[in-house]
Design a protein that fits this description.
It is built from three helices and two strands, in the order ββααα. β1 and β2 form a beta hairpin. Helix content is about 50%, strand content about 15%. The protein has one domain. By secondary structure, the chain is of the alpha+beta class.
Length: about 100
């Protein structure tokens, strides 16, 4: 169990909002919380940098390809395209780079 507290600065000086959240994790590891915390953050970094991008840029959740090997093939192609888009020069968003490439 992790209790997280954070303070969000308000729009005017001296105002802020405090939030508290309790998160529950199940693991067979017998490590202290200081060691497990970075592992959890790394997991969410992957979630935020890959899965979220795949859903927002490529609309993965709306994909209706569901038979035989097609889903695995499409995911592989989307990952290749995502890697190429990320490596392309320029400061445009990934979605705009994808549309430009189309």
């Amino acid at each position: 169990m992790v209790e997280a507290h954070r303070e969000i600065p308000g729009s005017s000086p001296g105002t802020s909002k405090e939030t508290a959240e309790t998160r529950l994790y199940i693991t067979s590891l017998t490590l202290p919380a200081e060691a497990i915390g970075p592992m959890v953050r790394d997991h969410w970094a992957i979630e935020n940098s890959l899965h979220w991008v795949m859903d927002m840029v490529f609309r993965d959740d709306q994909c209706r390809v569901r038979t035989e090997n097609a889903p695995a093939n499409f995911v592989t192609l989307k990952h290749i395209a995502n890697n190429l888009i990320r490596k392309s020069p320029g400061k445009d968003s990934q979605r705009l780079k994808r549309m430009t490439a189309c």
